[in-house]
Every structure is written in C-alpha cells, then in structure tokens.
Amino acid sequence: MSNSSTMSPNGDVMSPLIHPLVQRALADGYSKPKKVTMDQMLEKYCGEFGWWQFSHFILTSLAWALEGIHTMVMIFADREPEFRCLTNRCDSTVKTVCGLEPGSWEWTGGVKSSTVSEFGLICGHKYKVGLVQSLFFAGCMIGAGVFGHLSDSKLGRKGSLTIVCILNAIFGCLTAFSTDYWTYTLIRLLSGFSTGGTGLCAFVLATEPVGQSWRGVAGMSTFYFFSAGIAMLSAIAYFFQSWRSLYIASSVPSVMLVILVLPFLHESPRWCLVRGKVDEAMKIMRTIAKSNGKHLPDGVVLALDSEVNDDDSPDTQSESKEAPNGSLLDVLRLPLTRFRLFLAVAINFFCSVVYYGLSLNAVNLGTNLYLNVTLNAVAEMPAYLITALVLDRLGRKPLAIWTMWFSGIFCLAGALMKGHGTWKVVRMVCGVLGIFGMAGTYNLLFVYSMELFPTVVRNAALGCATQASQMGAILAPLVVVLGGGIPFAVFAVCGIAGGLLVMYLPETLNRPLYDTMAGMEEAEAEKPSILS
Asked: Which ranges does the record mark as transmembrane (predicted)?
C-alpha cells in the first residue's frame, strides 16, 4: 500500500488535507499559524499606504474622472445655443427665440450644435431638457443599487468596475447616433445606469486595500479625480462643439481605461477574503508587502474579524471557506445596521439636493460656459483639501455636522437676501460658500458611509446611500426652477436637517473595518463596557 502522507523537513508526518499555508508555518517552526484581520496585517506586515496602495489608488480612481465626464456632459450637449437675427423683423435685444418670427433668426453654431437646437427643445418643449437630466440620474440611482449588489457578490469590485466602464463607452457612443429625442432620452437613461456604478465600485476598490490610519484621507482624495474629469470635459467640449462629436470624444477615456488600466488592477483582498478565496487574498497581500518593501511571514494567515478569536484549530481548515453571504436584506434585518442605513440614506439625500441645487444656480453667472464649468470644478478642490487635512483630527462625525451646517447657514443667508443690486452679488457669494461647505460634506460621506458597514454588505449599503443621492439629484432641478429665495430656503433646511441627523451616527475614526455582520455586532456590543 502506498504512503499517502507527506514528510516535513523535521521528519514529521503531515496529512495532505492540511492547508499549504499551515504546512509552511509548521515547517518554519510555528506551532500553529497566527490568524489576523486585514487591518492588522496591513498595519504590522504589509504597510498601510505604501507604493502598492498609492499606485493602485491612482489607477483605480481614474474611473472617477469618467463619472464626472459622463455626468456633466449634458451641460454642454443640452445647452441652448446663442442665436442671431437675419432680418429686421427679429428683435436682437430679447434673450429667447420664443415669439420670434420663423426664418428671422438662426442658431449661431448651426442646428446640430446641441440637442436643444436639433430636437427643438425650446419654448413649450423646454421641459424636455430637464426630463432628460432627471432620467439620467434615475438611471444612476438604479445602477448604483444593481452594481452595488453585484460587486459584493460574484462579480467582485474589479469585475463590476470593468463592466460599467465598458457600458459607459458603448452607451456614450450610441448616444451620438440618436435619431430623435426619445431615442436620445432612452440611451441617456442607460448611460446613467452604468455611470451610477462607476464611482461606487472605484471608490471601494481603491480604498479597501488601504490601512486604517490612511483610509480616510485616501477615500476623500477620490473626488479630486471627479472634479478633474469635469475640468477635462470643459476642454473636450471646447474642441468638439457638436453634441454628437462631443459624446463620442467623451467616451474615448472610458475605452482607454478599459484597455490600458483595468488589466493591471488587482481585485480587493477584502472581497476575496469574505468570499472564501483565502489563497487569492493572501497572494495579493504578499504582493502588497513585497511592493512596499515589507515581509509577510508564512506563519501569519488572514481571517475574518469574527474568526480571529475562535478556538477552532486551523489545522483542519480547508483551502476555501464557505463565503459569508450578505445583501441589503441583511442590513435591514439587524437593528444596528438598519438604523445606520436609514440615517445614511436621509443624510445623503439632503446633501445631494443642496450640492446639485447650488451647482445649478452657479451656472447663471452670465459668463463663458466653458469657463464657468471649469471654475465650478476647481472651486470644490479647496473644500476637499481642507476636509481631508482635518478629517483624522476632528473625526468624521463633527466634521460632517459642521460642514452641513456651514452650508445651511449661508443658504439661509442667501434666502434672506434680495435678488437685485449689490444684494444679488452677496447672494452669489452665499451660494459659492454653500457649495464649498457641501462639497466637503459630499466627499466626507463616502468615507463615513463606507466605515459604517461591514465588508460583506458594504457595497450594497453604499449603493443604497448612492441611490438616495441620485434621488436628491433628480429633485434638485425642480427646486431650482422655483426661483427667487425659495431654493436657498429649501437648501438651508436640507443642510441644517442633515447636520442634525449626523448627530445620531457613531464616530468611526480609528475604528476597524469589520468584515462580517457578526464581527461588527460583537465589537459594537463591547464598546459600552470598554468605555466604562
């Protein structure tokens, strides 16, 4: 009879059923491997934010620029072009072509310069421009939920990001071949569906391999790429004046990302761990350690946070554990995460109404459109920088409260200002300061929301919060059309109410990212005794 056992270097007999990691650990003289969480392994052995995390973060966050491009392209494609008079029967002093005699005027850039001029979205049909915008954000809301679930399940973070980037390129190019308004509206809805999952998947993939002490700053830095994408869009739109050529040109970056960047990205080791792919997660962690100039001993093994303190012997562990399943239903089933989810949804909704609403008001400066969009994008960057610098000093909770209240107070001041003369300039300043405050909040909420939920349901919860943000984006234009001081008053209420709701959330500064629902529930249950 053949011998089925394996001899170790020390002459011991080891069963072939023992996991290879355990065999190496025994061969190196360890009695049994040390089980650590992802955060512990990054902190002690691999490095929390070394060269590997830096390059991975930069490459992954490029997808945020794509979201900025595909979201804001409507500003240029759906703009109302300038017109010029052809006959004396045309009044050149009016600001709209409504009421002018047909044939007495023409579009300055030609009929095909924008969707408004080509599809006749003027006068009584002007509402259709807002309809396209609302349906795009409705698509974003649906896509955020769908791809949030898919990235938590079998597709993974990288797989979901690859699919949405491919869809962005396809739908962007198809938009350019729209034959009528309703075809254009349908394809923009589909574009919103893919765009809604882009930033979500990129954010989680970029930040999950980052250590606890650097995660907040790294997460908040993703929005620089979003603003840079908007600024880049202004340059693209300047050179491609026709809306059809603009959609094709704005889709090229998505194609480049799929071909030149995504093949070189790694899957999230956290996702591999919670899906039971321990070997793949350990392989990525060894790559991280090697790239960062660190050493990961063979006697250290990744484990879920709920398993680190288990008394089960690792000698009997199989190569792939059963993956813990998590969904939005699991979030709603547990009172702790259900309460957090409801608060995150409401806060993200209020923030989105203010952010997008104030952004729409800012375009009414009466200057060059391309310059306006660029300045709006650049103006948000100081808010991102300041928020990132104080994030780990003040904490997530107080920073979220004060940035929302900062925006709400200036919106309230804007609502009390008159809309003419010098007061009109003061109101504009109040709007700019309101955007400044809410841009910091919008950035912070991604980091804060991510840290409120365990890995197994993180993308599903983030997807739900993102859906709430998209609902706020859908409703923001309806608030803006009310005119006068009413929009500022609504934005003030949303900002102040959002800050009050944040007060009921826990502080997540220097808290670990939990892997499972059970691990988070156990740790949170121990907090009162620890504090006492």
From this structure: 129-148, 160-179, 185-205, 217-240, 246-265, 339-358, 370-392, 399-419, 425-448, 486-505
